[in-house]
Amino acid sequence: MAENSDFEKENAFLLSGFETILGKIDSLNSQIKSQKSLIVGLQYEKEQLIIEAKNLKKKQSVSKRRNQRIKGKNRKSKQNNSSKLSN
C-alpha cells in the first residue's frame, strides 16, 4: 500500500512538472506567433516606406528639373535685358 502511495505521489509530481513544461511551451508558441505577426507588419511598413521614398525621389527630381528650367529662363532674361541695355 505504501509503495502504491509513493508511486502515485511520484507520478503526480512528474505530471505537474510536465504540465509546467507544457505551459511554458504554449507560452513560447504564443510568443512566436506574436513575433511572426510583428515581422509581417514590419515588412509591410518597410515596403510602404520604400514606395514613399521612391515617390519622394521622383518629386525631388521633378523639382530639381523645374528649378533648373527657371534658373535657365532667369539667365536668358538677364542676358536679354543686358543686351537691350547695351544697345
Overview of the molecule:
The protein is an all-alpha fold and 87 residues long. The chain has one helix and no strands.
Short description:
The chain is mainly alpha-helical and 87 residues long. Helices cover 98% and strands 0% of the residues.
- Total of helices: 1
Give the mean pLDDT: 88
Radius of gyration, in Å, reads 37 Å
Major beta sheet summary: none
Kindly state the number of beta strands.
0
Task: Tell me the β content.
Answer: under 5%
Shape: rod-shaped
Strand and helix order: H
N-to-C span:
127 Å
| Alpha-beta classification | mainly alpha
Uncertain parts? none
Fraction of residues in H or I helices: over 70%
SSE layout and pairing:
Layout: H1 2-86
List keywords for this structure.
single chain, 87 residues, mainly alpha, rod-shaped
